Predict the 3D structure of the following.
Amino acid sequence: MALVNIPQVKCGILSVSRDCFVISLSENRRQAIVRAYTKEYGDLYEVKKTVENEADMLTAVAEAKQAGCNALVVFLGNFGPETPETLIAREFDGPVMYVAAAEEKGSSLINGRGDAYCGMLNCSYNLGLRKLRAFIPEYPVGTAADIAGMIAEFQPVARTLIGLAGLKIITFGPRPQDFFACNAPIKPLYDLGVEIEENSELDLLVSYRAHKDDKRIADVVRDMTEELGTTGNPYPDLLPRMAQYELTLLDWAESHKGARQYVAFANKCWPAFPSEFGFEPCYVNSRLVSRGIPVACEVDIYGALSEYIGTCVSNDAVTLLDINNSVPQDTYQKEIQKKTDYTIEDTFMGFHCGNTPLCKLKQGGIKYQLIQNRLLENGGEPDITRGTLEGDIAAGEITFFRLQSTAGAELKAYIAEGEVLPAATNSFGGIGIFAIPEMGRFYRHVLIAKRFPHHGAVAFGHFGKALWSIFQYLGIEDVSFNQPKGMLYKNENPFA
């Protein structure tokens, strides 16, 4: 399914020039960047007005906006004018990146020297004076080809920041009593610029019943049938109920997004849901996240937020999993030990009832929620507990991460890159065997010590660099990662 719920980035580049430098130096270097980027990556809008003063700045920003740019690169082709160049970040409605030109030839260091290496220092200082946020690459000085690469790395960061600025998280139901880890304050969402709409489960049930005879149900059922195939669809009688629910959520999103462009859900899914709706919502949740509309389980608001961030960064479907159980010793010895360098403490199983999209499973199909079946149907023939999407998660690179509020309404995050191993889980649900270097220490000194909840967002690929940049841009001061051997965590026992 195509992602329909994330921004399309149109990035522009404008150059700045200090008036005591030759303006053509900055303009020519800007044009070289546009040529390099266009050749390697695609379109980049070139703002023709070069900024030397505040009036130029207003003209250049207006030109970028009029062209439809929603992200902007400010290029210091020479030292640059400190005040006008930093005010661009205030006047432009979108994320801004600052980069600077490297010197080109040893033979041109008299009339052709730009001093942008120095100018970037003053630019950063002035951004701080004005408390303006900007994206500055790890090493922001380079040739045209270097900077083209930096701009390419800026695109997923910009896409995510634009998405968050236009995001509304819609919830249904109070967060479960025994899942306090999901029960975090919502005030920091507003600090991030994210809106939230909290609703009752009854609101959802009323809307669901109103969709009972929706004429679109048959079309959705046909689409589900085609997606699942014959092996993944053992309960065809269940599909109309789930199609009705899918239309309920999509219609709610459209009618309730209000002034926002993008939505994510965090919905109550047990214990009352199966009894009242007649199925488990997992498969529908998986279908929506395949379109870029996360539906977090158990009213996990920050899980939904993290999933949406992962969707924007990866430009792909994501999932939300429990950091669930250890890998049995016999499974480790048979499937992992002789094939990899991972210790057993580097491994764990990530699991959820069935919200991981079909495209991320080795082979998936609709089943029933075993645990809820025991509770609600006494372990008998399943009916209302059907609706999970189950299967082993396909092997490949992943990034496990989360942005979370503490009980004191302070934001913190973690990022850990790893992989899903090609080893059978022999279990139920949407599940995979994950390996993250030094996971045991990360589990103890980050997840436990910093009191993160059991849910983690999973992006399918390595996106740690972009996520780190996003969290820095958002002002998240506490960002943890899986530290390598020899690099002790703050609270780690050096004698252990």
Remarks:
- The first helix runs from residue 23 to 40.
- The two ends are 48 Å apart (CA to CA).
- The chain has two domains: 11-158, 166-481.
